[in-house]
Amino acid sequence: MAKPVDLELKKAFVELQVKMVETSKKIQVIDSQIGVLKRVLQHADITQREISTLPPETKTYESVGRMFLLTDLAEIKSNLSNRTALLTSRTVELENSKEYLEKNLKESENNIREMVQQKKEQSEAK
């Protein structure tokens, strides 16, 4: 005769499964965002290296929407360094939230394992 399924345990498994799916989707989104930010950061870094070799009197243009404006070289370097700092901080934020989600997921799995272990111990004691 088959043992009756513990409804509390079944409900916890369903909740964990839903949480795991949601969390893994969030982690995938964060991974793709981090990838995009790293590519943009790499592009900004390459641009900074190329601009640093230019003489100070070089005419430089900065893109603003669909047009280009004549901009001072020092201002372009400043804008690039600000953008780099902003991208770096955003990448760190995303990595921290990814770590939090992964930690949260592991805690949930451990809680379910503990619940299963307790149910086994209770059934063996009877």
UniProtKB/TrEMBL annotation:
GO MF terms, alphabetically ordered: protein folding chaperone; unfolded protein binding
Keywords: Chaperone, Coiled coil
Pfam families given in the database record: Prefoldin_2
UniProt superkingdom: Eukaryota
Entry annotated with the keyword Amino-acid biosynthesis: no
SUPFAM superfamilies registered for this protein in UniProt: Prefoldin (SSF46579)
Coiled-coil regions listed in the entry: 91-125
GO cellular component: cytoplasm; prefoldin complex
Self-association state and partner proteins as the record states: Heterohexamer of two PFD-alpha type and four PFD-beta type subunits.
Family classification: Belongs to the prefoldin subunit beta family.
The protein, known as: Jg26835 protein
